[in-house]
Amino acid sequence: MQDLSPSHAPDVSAPVSSDQRTHRSQPYSTFGKRALDILIVAVTLPLTVPILAVLFVLAGRDGGPAFFGHERVGQNGVKFKCWKVRSMVANSQTVLREHLRDNPAAAAEWARDYKLTDDPRITRFGRFIRKTSLDELPQIINVVKGDMSIVGPRPIVADELKKYGSSARSYLAQRPGITGLWQVSGRNSVSYTERVALDVEYGLNRSLALDIAIIGKTFLAILLRTGR
Q1: C-alpha distance across the termini of the chain, in Å
Q2: CA 162/CA 172 separation, integer angstroms
Q3: Quick one: pLDDT band at residue 139, thresholds 50, 70, 90?
Q4: pTM
Q5: What is the DSSP letter of 76?
Q6: Which of 222, 149, 141 has its CA nearest to residue 184?
Q7: 178 alpha carbon, distance to own chain's centre
Q8: What are the beta bridge partners of residue 82?
């Protein structure tokens, strides 16, 4: 497997060539990847269902919804609800709006990265499930429905698509993933431009061996609690 570090990522401003589009149509991308998704969901279901039940109870203790679906852009530009365990306060939109209004530095960070290093919306329980990536477990529902894959680009909101520039076509050609190159390549220290490059890199080189390597690194990151 090739070096996955951001410094070895491709030029995201380069257009996608016909050869690259052909690469995406290879048998694994067309058929094998979906079969792997269903196999992984089926094998892990006896473990994930009880965990989801516990998370549902714990996340809903404050009276808010335990799970929530946020609209994201999927393959071919189709929008879908990306499911997560709620890790934020119930009135998160109000808290975010007021925080960005009162903190110019935070507003600049949000505009640049669509995330905050110090996010006032996240609860103590939320910090734990984010650190362990348990907040993303309900996305197995998206995988079963075909909205997402186990491995792929991180699902983005519509406003983020403009950050991809000409590389948006690479993102739109793929199913977003629960995990991916960005998540196992030091996501906390990776810029948005490097993240886009990693999405393009994965789209050009996806294979069974690469997916298995990424899944393995993801489990290791969860065990070591090196998430967000």
Answers
A1: 25
A2: 12
A3: very high
A4: 0.79
A5: G
A6: 222
A7: 5
A8: 70
